[in-house]
Amino acid sequence: MNKAILLIGGNLGDRTGHLREAVEQIDKQVGRVEKQSSLYETAAWGVAGQPDYLNQALLVATEMDARTLLHTVLAIEHTIGRIRRQKWGARVIDIDIIFFNDAVINEPDLKIPHPQMQFRQFVLVPLMEILPDWEHPVLHQSVSTLLNNCTDQLPASKYTGIS
Predict the structure, then answer these.
(1) Which residues are marked as active site?
(2) How many CB atoms lie within 10 A of CB 71?
(3) Beta bridge partners of 157
(4) Long-range CB contacts (< 8 A, 24+ apart) of 146-154?
(5) What is the mean pLDDT of residues 125-133?
(6) What is residue 108's predicted lDDT score, i.e. its pLDDT?
(7) Residue 41's pLDDT is what?
(8) For position 83, what pLDDT does the model report?
(9) Is 163 part of a structural domain of the chain?
(10) Which of 9-13, 23-27, 86-90 is most confident?
(11) Nearest in space to 139 (alpha carbons), one of 100, 102, 106
């Protein structure tokens, strides 16, 4: 059984509803969601002037290989209503593969571990909640250490349901 660590997020429409739907679809189509973080809210990263994002980290047990997982999560994004218009642009849902076991994959359309995860609090803070000791297979540092060394100025705050 493979262990995939996913980060889901979105900043358009019913943010909590879209994340809930993504978790349900991942559990049905990908594999059992073993752990899920709280929801975290952060300002948009990369493109200013967007609504704030909600993000959540998931640990998923799956029999899929990494490439099949990628195609499946892209299909789930499409089903929920994702339309790709602009890099780092606003979106209904985004599902990123952060880690896949201890794999290191560097292909044009599939990079694992996620190449920017160590620079982003919105990834590290939810991961810290569910997998603080998970070790990055390239940097050989735990999620906890990566978060302690992160210089991202956009804090990720636990979402209380009040915006």
Answers:
(1) 82, 91, 94, 96
(2) 12
(3) 41
(4) 146/117, 146/118, 147/121, 149/118, 150/118, 150/119, 150/120, 150/121, 150/124, 151/119, 152/45, 152/119, 152/120, 152/121, 152/122, 154/42, 154/43, 154/45, 154/120, 154/121, 154/122
(5) 97
(6) 93
(7) 96
(8) 66
(9) no
(10) 23-27
(11) 102
Calculate helix-pair angle for 66-80, 15-29, nearest 10 degrees.
Answer: 140
As a whole number of angstroms, the distance between CA 71 and CA 50 comes to 27
- Domain of residue 118: give its range: 2-158
Residue 104: inside a domain: yes
pLDDT at site 48: 74
How do residues 21-56 score in pLDDT, each as one tens digit? 999 999 999 999 999 999 999 988 777 788 999 999
In the block, tokens 């940097």 appear at: 139
* CATH code, domain carrying 137: 3.30.70.560
Whole-angstrom Cα distance, residue 54 to residue 11?
6
Cα 140 to Cα 134: distance, rounded to the nearest angstrom: 10
> HSE of 39 in the Cβ direction (CA atoms, 13 Å)?
19
| C-alpha separations of 121 from 34, 86, 101, 112, 139 in Å | 22, 22, 21, 18, 17
Number of domains in the chain: 1
Residue 137 is assigned to a structural domain of this protein = yes
